[in-house]
Amino acid sequence: MARAATTSDAFNAVAEPRRRDILNYLALQERGVGDIVTSLGIEQPSVSKHLGVLRRVGLVRVRRNGRHMFYRTNAEAIRPVYEWTKTFEWLWQHQLTRVKERAEAKQKLLDNS
Residue 20's closest CA among 62, 68, 53? Predict the structure, then answer.
């Protein structure tokens, strides 16, 4: 079965690691393309391409100020991705609990030696 286009929905868009990096960078505040290029070390044409995909699926919003474009995340569009991943949170909590239990058991063995 062919994979859906990256521009078809938020899930396909965030499958690309650089787009996730951009979303992470934009999570705290609105940023210009130049800031993204400088901070993430991705070439400007690539940043623009990724922002275009994120914009088409609604994950980012853009504001124009003169010749400059500023991007920010669109929390509502990210919600379905968040809700889907939250479904699996119990798996990670379970894993963390197991790691903690193993570490404590190992420490107990060392203390009793």
Answer: 53
What mean pLDDT, rounded, does the chain reach?
89
Token pair listed for 12: 């396909």
What's the whole-model pTM score? 0.74
Determine the Cα–Cα distance for residues 74 and 67; give it in Å rounded to an integer: 22
Residue 61 has φ and ψ, to the nearest 5°, of -115, 155
Place of tokens 């909590």: 93
CATH topology of domain 10-112: Arc Repressor Mutant, subunit A (1.10.10)
Higher-scoring residue by pLDDT: 107, 46: 46
Distances (CA, A) of 97 to 22, 67, 88, 103, 106: 31, 51, 15, 10, 14
